Amino acid sequence: MAFIEFRDVVKEYGAGEHAIRAADRVSFEIEKGEFAVILGPSGAGKSTVLNLLGGMDRATGGAIRVDGTDISRFNDDALTSYRCDTIGFVFQFYNLIPTLTACENVALVKDIVKNAADAGEALEAVGLGDHLRQFPAQLSGGEQQRMSIARAVSKKPKLLLCDEPTGALDSETGMMILALLQRMCRENGQTVVVVTHNTVLTQIADRVIRLKNGRIVEQSVNPAPMRAEEVSW
Ligand SMILES: Nc1ncnc2c1ncn2[C@@H]1O[C@H](COP(=O)(O)OP(=O)(O)OP(=O)(O)O)[C@@H](O)[C@H]1O
To answer: Mind telling me which Pfam families this protein's record contains (predicted)?
Structure first.
């Protein structure tokens, strides 16, 4: 059994004739330790799939199994535990706390999980070792994005979900972040799922899933993914 299994997953927003079907019988599998990329045009349903996988939203139909359990049957308490214990999330819009420093923003994770990585080390790993005491507003957009990645990574989640993690980054910094994510898969057996418009990521992904109009239009497994250090855009 794969680590992640989507079976005929449907997600509708709204009801009746105004309902929008953002995910339309979506089925795919992702193995443990894979670096998977979900691609597709704007409105294709990528964030919808990521939110369902992260337990932040509930499917209208179908089954979502993660690590052997059908999370679509979870009640609210079980879903909260799943988000706390299993998932790390890098949001498109960072969601940093403006009144806390970089170090404090990352250290917050220690309130949720026992074995979180040291906040300073996590910030060092994303190239922000010299910015520990700065507030989000004192950092650039790309630095804020890296702060949010450090926060998610420091949680050492079994499953890391990233919505456009390189969107605000230049090629060199983006490559450094992708290398970090790839190492999490290769060295720690963590599973990483990235939603992106950046097709360069297909070269380093173990698995590529393409969505359009809420449907899967293509799925492929990359027989020889490149190392993140080898790509640029
Ligand atoms: N909370 C919501 N309420 C109503 N409709 C929604 C909601 N969230 C998403 N949608 C709709 O569902 C469809 C898929 O949206 P989604 O955000 O998943 O696309 P996406 O592929 O992530 O797009 P983008 O690349 O622009 O972020 C869109 O038509 C969107 O308008």
So the answer is: ABC_tran
